[in-house]
Write a structure and sequence with these properties.
Blueprint lengths: L5 E4 L2 E4 L25 H14 L5 E10 L4 E9 L4 E6 L2 E6 L10 H8 L8 E3 L6 H9 L5 E3 L4 H13 L6 E3 L4 H7 L4 E6 L9 H6 L1 E14 L3 H14 L4 E13 L2 E10 L1
Parallel strand pairs: 2-3, 7-8, 7-10, 8-9, 10-11
Antiparallel strand pairs: 1-2, 3-4, 5-6, 11-13, 12-13
Helix pairs in contact: 2-3
Length: about 280
Amino acid sequence: MKQKSFDVLGNIAVVNFPRNSNSRHRSVYTLKGTSPKLLSAGAKKKFAEKLMKEQKQIKTVLEKVGKIKGRLRKITTKYIAGEKTKEVLYKENNCSFRFNVDTTYFSPRLSNERIEIANKIKKNESVFVMFAGVAPFSIVIAKNSKAGRVYSNEINREANKYAELNIGLNKLKDKIKLVNGDIKKVVKKFNKKVDVVVMPRPQLKDTFLKQACQISKKGTRIYYYDFCKVGEEKLVVERIQKEVRECGKKVKILKVKKAGEIAPYKIRVRVDFKIL
């Protein structure tokens, strides 16, 4: 199955070029009149220039080098063409975000997920967003719902700087509170129980469900993201039920949703559940 060849983040396009000419995804790099075998530096630059010509909002083209790694979810990019910058001004869901594509994580492909979660928040509900990055979930929820206080947690210090900037940029300082640091340490000092927990997790072995339970009460809804092979969503649900039981709580599964394909036969899944 073909993968999208590039992400557009504001005025920057981040392209994931195939590593060799035998890549079965190489044809997705063909623009009007452009050869699909875009492996040399010259060919990549040619592709970038045509991309900027055909999509006028793109002013910079970067190449993604390597995979997203670790809990900080950082990537490395290489400049290909256009303006020499890695800082983005990106807009979605009536919100604006600034961030650096190399030092912080941001996925435009979760735009629909962010507004969908915002639409599920009820008036005056308190919301805790884990793995918040530069605060896209936190800001979209605060801007597009009648939530009460939104707590935004992230371990990446650089992302936290941008989160603070973005909260001000969207005029939400009175609605969002940053609670920065390692979530395992943060919840020990966080002496509140919230109505909603949002968990857009990176691909890590730890589920962090124990920490979600620590800030939950009876009736708390949790929106939990995980990754699995197609057809193995049930295993994700079973793991949630098991780990929440170990915390002395029970759950009611509200919904299991495919929230995007991340690789051939591998998906992001969202499980909505409620603490009983």
